[in-house]
Write a structure and sequence with these properties.
The protein is of the alpha+beta class and about 170 residues long. The protein is built from 5 helices and 6 strands.
């Protein structure tokens, strides 16, 4: 008699859950590998610490986390070397787009990015075609009680900050 096996029902549900967890663990491991590129010590590498905390929150096994850290930092036989690359192009309506990414294989990544541009109605440009339109900036939030406004203003301007503003909640935005 078919349809009466208890394991047959569980097997299909378990396969779906295992597939989701596998995809999540792969993504978390990749985040850990990218973060470990800047140092394998979570105490000194804040990005790595956050990636590990996120993996632990998702119940990722400890040995998977350790393997990803070793792989990303260049230790072991299966080390992966990620290299940063930038692609430039124009989207729909001639909107300039700058794509920064990390890849372990530039040969595979370039056609993938080009395909994304073309599917969405844009086109990939030559290196340097839109870079001059962008300017890299950072935003820092400083708690109000940690430093005087005048001291912060002097330090920020000496460091080359464009602007220092006081926010409605009393904190400072550099």
């Amino acid at each position: 008699m078919s349809g009466h096996s208890h394991w047959a029902g569980i097997k299909h549900k378990k396969a779906v859950v295992d597939n989701r967890r596998g995809r999540l663990f792969s993504k978390l491991a990749r985040d850990i590998m990218v973060a470990a590129r800047n140092g394998a010590d979570p105490g000194m590498n804040l990005t790595l610490r956050y990636a590990i905390d996120k993996a632990r929150a998702a119940s990722m096994p400890r040995d998977n986390i350790e393997r990803a850290v070793k792989k990303g930092s260049g230790e072991g036989d299966d080390a992966v070397q990620f290299t940063p690359c930038t692609y430039e192009g124009y989207g729909p309506g001639s909107v300039a787009i700058l794509v920064d990414c990390l890849t372990d294989n530039r040969t595979r990544t370039a056609p993938g990015i080009k395909s994304i541009f073309e599917k969405r109605g844009g086109n990939m440009g030559a290196p340097g075609c839109v870079r001059h339109l962008f300017e890299r900036k950072s935003l820092f939030l400083v708690p109000a009680g940690s430093v005087a406004e005048e001291t912060l203003m002097e330090a920020a301007l000496e460091a080359g900050a464009a602007d220092v503003q006081s926010r409605a909640d009393g904190d400072f935005e550099v």
